[in-house]
Target: RNA helicase
Amino acid sequence: MQRGGRSQSRRDGRPPGLTGKEIGLYYKNLARERKKEAKNENKIKIGCDVSVPPGVLTRVKEYMEQLKAARETGQEQLDAKFQDQFRHLLSVNFDAFIEETKKQNQDLQLRNSSLDAQLEELQRERFQRADFQERYKERMKLPTMSHAAEIIKAVEKNQVLLIVGSTGCGKTTQVPQLLLDDSISKGMGSGCRIVCTQPRRISAITVAERVSYERAEALGHSVGYQIRLESCKPRERASITYCTTGILLQQLQGDPLLHNVSVLLLDEIHERSVETDLLMALLKIILPHRPALKVILMSATVREQDFCNYFNTCPMFRIEGVMHPVEMLYLEDVLALTKYQFDTRKNKRARPRSDQSDHRPMIEPYIRRVRDRYDSKVLEQLRLPCSEGCADIDFIANLIYYICTMKSEGAILVFVPGYSQISELHNTLLNPRLALGQRWRDHLLVYPLHSMLPSVEQQSVFRRAPSGKRKVIISTIIAETSVTIDDVVYVINTGRTKVSSYDIETNIQSLEECWVTHANTQQRKGRAGRVQPGICYNLFSRAREALMSEVPTPEILRSKLESIILSLKLLHIDDPYAFFPTMIDAPAQKAVSTAINLLNRIEALDNHGQLTPLGMHLARMPIDPQMGKMILISALFRCLDPITSVAAALSYKSPFYTPMDKEQRVDEAKRRLSQNMRSDHIMLHYTICGYRESRQAHRDRDFCYNNFLSKMTLQQLERMKQQFSELLYNSKFLTSTNCMDESSNMNSEKIPLLRAIIGGGLYPNMAHLCTSRQIKNRVRAIHKMFTDDGRRVNFHPSSVNSGKSGFDSNYFVYFQRQKSTDLFLLDATMVFPMALIIFGDGVESGVIDSTHYISVAKTYYFKCNPETAAVVIDLRTSLELLLLEKALYPAPIKENSDAYKLIRAIELLLSIDDKIGEDYDLMSADEIDDI
Ligand code: CDP
Ligand code: MG
Model:
């Protein structure tokens, strides 16, 4: 106490207990800190003048007065009342939430004895039927079926069971059926409701179809599926539902104890998706409250012990598969067999992959080791970086022709990283340039397999090819475990896949192509040995394989956490810092705090980390909260169509594809489409408009071809836009489900407004361009630009802003940064300061050296007279109130309503931006060095 008292009395806050030298050091540090602070203060540079001309300001003020007058007539009180109710809803913690739902469900009667008898009878009849018998015979060949009795017993005896078995042994299709049929035949069918989660939409549908077929029933009878926006639910009782993991997470929000489920199967947990990891952690909380709930975890043979440990060494049941042997060949062997020669000229022109620099140090020592075993011509090819992976699509096509020529019957399954390689190989096989390809073209049945394909197209992939034809399936990672195609005998493993990564330090999330792991290769190999001995052709060398990691990094460790934190809030799991460490792999604390900070800045969470009404809406949307906020505001502000185009393309992918060697032509096309708006995002909107127009004129093929656009992606984007609109309609933000409806697009032509809303949505991803200098006769420009964490960035060459100068504003928002040779903004929209001031956060006004300013997030300072500052800050308060009100009572803002005055006021402020550009000089180069 004494010491504490003494230290408190010190004015400078020197900590107690320091000795002589330490005291000296303490003051030295203090002086340094102060100097730094002082320098920081001086560093504030006040940017352009954003003061609004008096005439305009007066009109803005008038609108605001009208709005206020309307508010005072009573609405405010209602807001306060609703806000209270909302807060109460949020104040219920997880334990209370659980108790609440327990009470609600205590009278739930699952069993019904007359139904039990009926079900039993129906089952007996079904077992007699010839079609069932025939299919049952097939099922009996699956390894899982030979363990039927043991599995049933193990489930009876344990609350949690881990089933491990190689892919294709029958876990997904058989285990749920075994349990359902067992409970029906024991006269307990009415209490049996089985839910089995699948990692992907396509597997939920195809498995449900398969299982209905095996049961000789129509889909939707005892077996059904449920995926987002699409379902074919089975009967209420005595049923199996295959659903995506996301759907189950959503159901937990309404019924955290899953009272309507008797058996829950978590499938494919070895994939370590965020969703299954989350569900496992949630199950650990749920299980003690639901002693009757059975949980079955199912995994391929990948690090299964981790799951067993996580569930307190729960019993593990192993199903050994009956796999045929699969021969493993590597790149060097494939080169020796096919005698393929790479066209080095063609491959040199392609943009080099970022991980190609490690090729030489890897391959040279290996070549020395295997010199005696391979022909020197083979080694020469092996030395080329383009020989590996899927850099050369013609090489893969050539290998397919080799198999067709030399090998006996059997389907070929090719693993490539993503959609662009699928379509490239697909095109190469169907429109071959070489005679060899032309000879085989009509003998091939080529199936692309990709998670975004419409479900109808996905089924045909399972059918056997008619005689004389060979089935070739080109797939992403989804055919690795979650989709099983029986007749595959040959697997071509390019070894490449797309993986999202997240760098906590730079807060950059990106989707990159990289090498697979040993675990992936093992699974892929297994796909070849299902019906007979098979061959796996790996398009990488043994040396490459030695460098690959054992298993993939769990997704949660390479993800941004904003959406996850928001959805946990809906489950009443309030403290992410406490919850994440309970997961099988916990994300770093810094990733958690970065996410919370962002959620706070976009006003999804308040300063206490509580969900705001806006946050609740964002949590319910299936997209990134920043994108969610953007489309929500666009609904209120009635410019839905352009903004949903932006949100769809940013959440899914750009509709542009870049053929090898054509980068510049693609960039030119984008620039044409951008109409010089200095915005990659408005360009996307124009692109979709252009596509629609061309479609009406039946010229969409040309339009897509000339502009390097993927029609499939464009169609998918339209579907997503439609989904967003339906979602916003369902939560009453829109009066129509059509994103092109006139009422939702009254302001869609107003570019300054679009710019501001894109800015508001992508905020706080900001960059400030300090200088841009045109060089080389105005064909290129050098940019000196920084993001607000002080990192130097550049426009990516594929951005329409790259190489441009003469911007009307020096502020940009972006969605993604990417680090390759430099740090790049992959996409950017020029925004005006006023948009930042209206839609940004931490807006303050003040005076420095007798200059009045207004600042955003203590980062961007603009000269601004006090009158403008006062009006703008007042307007921000009204906007906040409006958002709160709309979050509580969702409805579009009616034209000529009082709230519409606010939009008019904002529009007025934004419309003067164009004038700012004229007298706004770029800072000179010497000024920059101070920044
Ligand atoms: O889950 P696991 O990988 O252990 O195997 P499964 O998905 O239950 O597959 C067992 C068998 O069902 C496969 O060998 C396929 O013959 C068949 N199946 C199918 O024909 N169509 C599907 N959509 C899924 C499975
Ligand atoms: Mg499975």
About this structure: The two ends are 47 Å apart (CA to CA). Confidence is low (pLDDT under 50) at residues 1-9, 915-931.
